[in-house]
Amino acid sequence: MQVQWKGVMPAVTTKFTEADTLDLKMFEVNINAQVQAGVSGIILGGTLGEASTLSDDEKRILIETTVGIVDGKIPVIINIAEQSTKGAIMAANNAL
């Protein structure tokens, strides 16, 4: 899917449980609410901290979960804000 850079593309927050694990149940509620509201795309790992603090595994889970929820209706974009070029390249390859 080619991204059309127009419309509303919210950088969604990542929900965590009290045990500091991904709260995928609440995350899914949020993503579904965004899709039902008519957003043009979803951005994961916003630049205010999440992109650099989520583990590679958490990012992978969020991408896979979001892609499954939106089911091709809108693009899913992951923010890449790694601390090195090598890390950024690896994050981009992992997002494919």
What does this structure look like?
The chain has about 100 residues and is mainly alpha-helical. The protein has one domain. It is built from four helices and two strands. A two-stranded parallel sheet has the order 1-2. The mean pLDDT is about 90.
Layout of helices and strands:
Blueprint: H1 24-37, E1 42-44, H2 50-53, H3 56-70, E2 76-78, H4 85-95
Helix pairs in contact: 1-3
Q: TL;DR of this structure?
A:
The protein has helices spanning 24-37, 50-53, 56-70, 85-95; strands spanning 42-44, 76-78.
Keywords:
two-stranded parallel ribbon; 4 helices; single chain; 96 residues; mainly alpha; 6% strand
Q: Give the class from helix and strand content and strand pairing.
A: mainly alpha
Show unreliable segments: none
Give a count of the beta strands, DSSP E runs of length 2 or more. 2
Q: Can you summarize the main beta sheet?
A: 2 strands, parallel
C-alpha end-to-end distance = 12 Å
Mean of residue pLDDT? 90
- The share of residues in helices is 40-55%
Radius of gyration: 13 Å
Amount of beta strand: 5-15%
What general outline do the C-alpha atoms trace? globular
**Helix run count:** 4
| Overall structural domain count | 1
The SSE string, one letter per element, is HEHHEH
In the sheet with the most strands, the strands line up as: 1-2
What kind of oligomer do you see? single chain
